[in-house]
Amino acid sequence: MITSPVTSSSPNIDIRLASIDDLKALLVLEGKAFTGDRLSRRSFRHAITSSGSALFVAMKEDGELLGYALLHLRQGTHLARLYSLAVSPEARGLGIGKLLIRACEKKTLKKGKMLLRLEVSDVNHNAIALYQKMGYKEFGHYDAYYEDQTDAIRMQKRLRHAGDEQTTRAIPWLAQGTPFTCGPASLQMVLSSMHPDYQATPNDELEIWREATTIFMTSGHGGCHPMGLALAAKKRGLSADVWLSEEGPLFVDSVRNELKKNVITRVHESFAQQCEDVGVPLHYTAMPLAQLIEAFDDGALAIILISTFRMDGKKSPHWVVMSGYDEHCILVHDPDLDDDKKLPDDPPSPLDCQYVPIARDEFEKMSRFGQSRLQATVVLKRL
Question: Where is the N-acetyltransferase domain (predicted)?
């Protein structure tokens, strides 16, 4: 949600991080700046106190609030998002928006992020012009994104030089429908990219999970086995190769119950036999990053198992899709909207989950799961 900042400047404006004492003024400004999509007191308070956000305010010498900018910093990635920017109607013409954006850019760089993204109403021509002047480029579009049903333009700016331009693939993004179907949702993204006629339905998401599940994990529903995902992909018309850093049953160290260990082992052995029967190659070695990029350049897409620890502090196995790369980063489509971390009036956005830049060294750490540092990659191609 972006209001219309302008580009002149004033030396008497102080840009600082917001404090709890600013809450009342922030709510008043929010009411002036927006007729819908407003942030609540709870959201402002969370932004002020959260380590994952930065809320900047622009103040006059007499203490009057002239504007604010809310920045979200995605943990474990090189991505930041300018979530909301507002300027008091009485302060237009002072360059408040530009000053606040600069503050967000400096914070983004200080936190080690490389890419700053935002969305802006396609009818907000003044804001769009300012972002373009400041180096932001359009890279996407959302229909009926705001409460008033206006569309949103997606823009981004690379704040740190990253060598060559990004190499990306046009991959439809899909959210996982349950906490345990990241693997099926990732496969559905690949299927939607490679087979445009494929219908990514919630029923097929569950069917893929039924075909690929390990049955048991530490608690709750079992996740998806890489061989199971490869077999599900093969069944739906793709060629699949599986790269595993170990030969034995996967995930057994995540459970203590002997019955569960036995079931996981039997499922693993069954998947391995099915792969042999239908001709799905199994490579018992970690896929080198250089080879992964080479496969991407040759038209393949990869589903990769990561640990979410560096992103959310949890040691959970999670499947993502490689959607691009540049000299310093691997880009991924993450099917998890992470609803648990969002407030009611700060809804999760697909903007935060597409082409997520992760530093290569950080990605290599993420793509090792559990005590055995398991690495699993499923490489998919059109037949």
Answer: 13-160
Amino acid at 306: I
State the amino acid at position 156 in one-letter form: Q
Report, in angstroms and rounded to the nearest whole number, the Rg of the chain calculated over CA atoms: 23
Beta bridge mates, 376: 244
Q: Which residue has the higher pLDDT, 372 or 183?
A: 183
CA torsion angle 347 349 353 355 (round to 10): -150
For all residues of the chain together, what is the average pLDDT? 88
**Three-state secondary-structure class, residue 132:** helix
The CA distance from 161 to 285, in Å, is 33
Q: Is residue 345 pLDDT above 60, yes or no?
A: no
Tokens found for residue 137: 């480029």
- Show the DSSP H helices in the chain as ranges: 23-33, 41-49, 96-110, 125-133, 182-194, 202-212, 226-235, 258-278, 289-297, 309-312, 360-366
pLDDT tens-digit profile of 250-263? 988 777 889 989 99
pTM score of the predicted model: 0.74
DSSP H helix total and E strand total for the chain: 11, 15
How sure is the predictor about 3, in pLDDT bands with cuts at 50, 70 and 90? Answer: very low
- In whole angstroms, what is the distance from residue 83 CA to residue 95 CA? 19
Q: What is the C-alpha to C-alpha distance for residues 82 and 3, in angstroms, rounded to an integer?
A: 12
User: Contact at 8 Å (CB) between 311 and 75?
Assistant: yes
In order of their start, the domains of the chain are 14-160 (3.40.630.30), 182-382 (3.90.70.10)
Separation of alpha carbons 222 and 214, rounded Å: 5
- Going by DSSP bridges, is the β-strand pair 115-121/65-73 parallel, antiparallel, or unpaired? unpaired
Order of strands across the sheet with 65-73? 14-17, 53-59, 65-73, 79-87, 115-121, 152-158, 137-142
- The model's pLDDT over 124-155, given as tens digits with 9 standing for 90+, comes to 898 999 999 999 998 877 777 777 788 889 89
pLDDT per residue as tens digits for the range 232-283: 999 999 999 999 999 989 988 777 889 989 999 999 999 999 999 999 999 9
> What single-letter DSSP state applies at residue 39?
P
